[in-house]
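Please, structure for the following, as tokens.
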Amino acid sequence: MDRYLLSELIPPFLFGVGAFSSIGVTVDAVFDLIRKIVESGLPVGIAIQVFLLKMPYFIVLAFPMSTLLATLMTYSRLSSESELIALRGCGVSVYRMVLPAVMLSLVVTGMTFVFNEQVTPTANYQANRILDSALKSDKPILKQQNIFYPEYRDLQEKDGTKSKILARLFYADQFDGKRMKGLTIIDRSTEGLNQVVVAESAQWNGSQSVWDFYNGTIYLVAPNGSYRNILRFEQQQLKLPRTPLSLVEKSRDYGEMNISESLEQLTVEKLGGDRQKIRKLQVRIQQKISLPFVCLVFGLVGAAMGTVPQRTGRGTSFGVCVIVIFSYYLLFFVSGAIGQAGIISPFLGAWLPNFIFLFIGLFLLIRVARR
């Protein structure tokens, strides 16, 4: 029975992976690459390379949807042809009948997790790098512009309460991969001494763990705002944190980082104190963990819906599949936005859709089993 059910589940699953990933990559990548070939002169060879590197991202998105399609279509067909009734007549419970679907879903969950961690982030990063390099080949490639890094410290008030105040503000116009350029640093970290550093460029000196500033001026200001001193320099070493450099080196889009890299980025963002960025990254990390388990949830939901006694064709099953997918991802984006807004925790913002659809699947399964 297990071999038979798996042989019925695997073909529609593979069909779903091919269909959903093809639709996704066509709508999102192919049209954009064709436009870049025509309008920006992107070489066809580069476009093909970028296309292949973007495929893993859409395959990962197709895994959960294909699991739902396979389980729903297979069990709906078995139900409409009375094969499930025959199995139940032989003493096989509904829970035992859906076990192959659950096992297949667990395997797909593991595949999704591996793709999300090992393949997709690197492929997305390489695709974007290759595309940017090809489109900007006649321009200097800058890793990042407008680097803004605030650092805060806790202040103990007289009444015992704590508040955060700005300790240091680091700004650079751009980073060319080696040096920061156009820098302005406001340093209030030392008690009784405020200074403003303006420099043409700066470079991190790893051997001495200091910053080497070039062609700039240091303005020393007393706590009451009065002038104290001005120091002009051609080269000056300052003991400042390396965090701004770490920030630009590790700065990637969320789709270009795995969980480990996202946690490292979160540590850097926490030093900066930008609560909105911290909250967004916390939600994204939880979503990276929760997304693979959508395969298990969809597998259970599809099998439970398919075991309901009915007379439906493949077209109806496909339509129900589309409705379920649309409902899930609508809830996924809404709960994620609510989590980023701080209304609910990042964990709940990422996992709430899974919990809701898992409850729906279990409810349907128990209901069918009691009939």
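The beta strands are 144-156, 162-175, 180-190, 193-205, 210-221, 227-238. The two ends are 22 Å apart (CA to CA).
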